[in-house]
Amino acid sequence: MSPKGHKRLRPQEFQCLVGRCSDVALARIIKECARVLERGDPLPHPARTKIADDLREEVQDLLAKVPMQLNDGGDTAWSFLEPNRLLAHVVESCPPLAQAYGRATNEHMPTRQKPWDLMICYDEFVPGDKLKSYAARKCMVLAYNFKQLGEEVLCKDHSWMIPIVQRSTSIHDILGGWSHMLAKYLHIQLLGAQGLATAGVMLLINGAPLLVYANVQSILPDYDGVRIGWDWKGASGLRPCLRCANVFKKHTDLAARLDNCEEITCTDKALLMERTNTEFEEDVDLVTEAGVAYMAGEMTLERFTDIQRSTGQNFNPLGFVADKTLRVHVPPLDVLNQDWVHGILSDGIMGQEMCCFIEADLGVSMADYETFMKSDLRFPKHYYTKGARLWRVFDEHRNKPDNEEPTKIKGDASELMGLYALMRHFVELRFKDQPHELDVERASFNACCDVVDVILQMKNCLFGS
Fold first, then answer.
1. pLDDT tens-digit profile of 98-113?
2. How far apart are CA 318 and CA 228, in angstroms?
3. What φ, ψ does residue 351 adopt, rounded to 5°?
4. H-state helical runs in 168-276
């Protein structure tokens, strides 16, 4: 009961003081405050600047500083969290995560002969409004985790270590770019004094020491990540597919003049030949040797440019794929693992299929889809907020009349994840009395939807059941 003369806080007022948190989390906060007071320690200062200062002081011993050369000839020190010390610090500081590592160890002991599988992902993020991004704030974020922890742990954000958050503008100033920085990072994480592939990383699991060994099993970038990490010219180059050995750019006439070669428009998978890691490394070495010869005056610029175009690679002797020491532990093409979200949802084939179908269906417009999305649709509780705003994908503010691509689907991956099923339902209702209208276009759109269905079933372990 509140003391006499004091007004009792209503639930809404109390919630404003502590923020929106569950009863379990609130009980944990109160118990922690009580323990701090029992020890005679002061309570944490609530000011954001004080919290930031305490965090900087805590991670000061975890920082690694690597000297890097700039494009203008100067030098700089690249600072990031040393990945192996960060892992040991976080596991020791988080008992639930330590228990997850303990369970994974019981099933698979990470030894030098049978190391764990290290998964590394990186991507660029822009804070703020996704429709009005400010490029100067764009940051490259790299995170890693271990496959043996299991899907349940990997789905939790706190299980991923994030040693690098770097402004993209500063990456452009580094000689060799992101590929050079990635090579430096991998040397420290794998081959350093506490490298996962050499000496192992010592962790404390409930007070017991655990030595963890790991090898890179996969690196997961998006399309731009492959281009800047693998020093690849990209889909606009003469070799538009990094994984195919016999695929060339459209309208180059090379496929017609070379045996067993195809253009990028080929849809028969049986005609495509997979490029091996050895072949890829040979192409990288060829470009590196050609670059050295050109800089020494032993090769013309035209010849050097032709070699880069024919291999689809850019000259970068400091890059990750040109590092022969690193290749022994990280074969560039074997560890490359591109996720389905970027290939299908985010500016992928699903968005393209939606655009093509909307263009083909002259009987409806973006406004009709917007009206349908605003109708009495009900979504699961966990998706209600996002689902109730799906109509914004077709809103006139996202699709202005002066836009060069008026029917481009502007939405993030989570929006397209919910949108494709609703759009399929809209199409079924619209053509239920016209089964032969736009049958080819509908078959193409439905086939793309089926692809997403199968992937989601696989993710939920329902495929084939």
1. 999 999 999 999 999 9
2. 13
3. -60, -40
4. 168-171, 177-191, 223-229, 254-257
pLDDT tens figures, 364-382: 888 888 888 888 888 777 7
Q: What pLDDT is stored for residue 109 in this prediction?
A: 93
Helices (DSSP H) in 7-157: which residue ranges? 11-18, 23-39, 48-59, 83-93, 95-107, 151-154
The token duo for 54 is 């305490």
Lowest mean pLDDT among 13-17, 67-71, 83-87, 181-185: 13-17
- Identify which of 372, 348, 430 has the alpha carbon closest to the alpha carbon of residue 438: 430
pLDDT at 108: 92
pTM, whole model, 2 decimals?
Answer: 0.79
Q: What's the confidence (pLDDT) of residue 130?
A: 61
Pick the range with the lowest mean pLDDT from 237-241, 283-287, 296-300.
237-241
Sign of CA dihedral 47, 51, 54, 56: negative
Nearest-angstrom CA–CA distance, 393 and 258: 45
Most confident of 151-160, 275-284, 341-350: 275-284
C-alpha torsion sign, points 461, 462, 464, 465: positive
- Alpha-carbon distance of 196 to 212, in angstroms, equals 7
- In SS3 terms, 301-315 reads as HHHHHHHHHHHCECC
- Extended beta strands in 111-160, E state: 116-125, 139-146
Phi, psi dihedral angles at 102 (to 5 degrees): -65, -40
Q: Could you identify the residue written with the tokens 């958050």?
A: 165
> Would you mind telling me the total number of residues written for the chain in this entry?
465
Spatial CA neighbour of 408 closest among 366, 438, 445: 366
Extents of the domains making up the chain: 12-41, 59-229, 247-333, 342-459
CA–CA separation, 253 vs 17, rounded Å? 69
The arithmetic mean of pLDDT across residues 54-71, rounded, is 86
β-bridge partners, 81 = 63
CA–CA gap between residue 93 and residue 98 (Å, rounded)? 8
